[in-house]
Design a protein that fits this description.
By secondary structure, the protein is an alpha+beta fold. It has ten helices and seven strands. This is Transcriptional regulator.
Length: 228
């Protein structure tokens, strides 16, 4: 469990239904009672919102058998349509452009395009993180950047490392057909944070979110060994 509550940079949504959707997006499947407690709204308001969202095809419910004596547990989660309610960075057009580059110009041209994007992203992030006092501040600034870009990013500390979580991927469709985009983002994180960064959950592989474990000092140690 996290040592402390996550630092949030999530969009403000209106209405109980939108708040329920956002809760399911950022925290995964949950019971109606837990959603009510987390959002501070009545159980009846949550129930009505879930029923309406289910009718719209945005959420689905799974019934789990009781553990011992008691009633079955119902857990609500987003459907594919529910996930699509969140921004996806002109997914169809992006995929078409990537396919066109690969088909017309070849894989080498696509790789160069990804490298150029990585260089631009790294320069932008390095400028934003310049002057950060320590790894904690670098992570906080990176999370703020990613949240503004639509990744619903947050982070918290776990023992001697950090966990950076992105509850949404606005380029998910493009990344699915071109996983070089995901690799370049991982390279960028390692460079600008000056730390070891390992992806431990990946939306493209079917996870609910992308998550990165960040360990201080490891990247610098590898560079020193390589030079030696």
């Amino acid at each position: 469990m996290p040592a402390r509550a996550p630092k949030k940079n999530l969009p403000a949504l209106r209405g109980a239904g939108e708040r329920v959707l956002l809760r399911l997006k950022t925290r995964g499947a949950a019971r109606a009672a837990d959603i009510s407690l987390a959002l501070g709204i009545s159980a009846e308001a949550v129930r009505q919102s879930l029923v309406k969202l289910e009718e719209e095809g945005l959420v689905t419910v799974t019934t789990e058998p009781p553990q011992g004596v008691g009633r079955p547990t119902q857990r609500w989660s987003l459907t594919a349509a529910g996930h699509e309610r969140f921004p996806n960075a002109h997914a169809e057009l992006t995929v078409q452009l990537l396919d066109s580059v690969r088909t017309v110009l070849g894989k080498g041209a696509l790789d160069r395009l990804i490298d150029a994007r990585e260089s631009q992203m790294r320069a932008t992030y390095e400028q934003a993180l310049a002057g950060a006092a320590d790894l904690n501040e670098r992570v906080a600034r990176l999370v703020e950047l990613r949240a503004r870009e639509g990744y619903m990013a947050e982070y918290w500390r776990e023992d001697d490392s950090f966990l950076l979580v992105e509850n949404h991927c606005p380029i998910c469709v493009a990344a699915t057909v071109c996983q070089g985009l995901c690799r370049s983002e991982l390279h960028t994180f390692r460079a600008v944070l000056e730390a070891d960064v390992q992806r431990v959950e990946h939306i493209v592989d079917g996870a609910r979110r992308c998550a990165y474990r960040i360990t201080p000092g490891a990247a610098r140690s590898r560079k020193i060994r390589k030079k030696g």
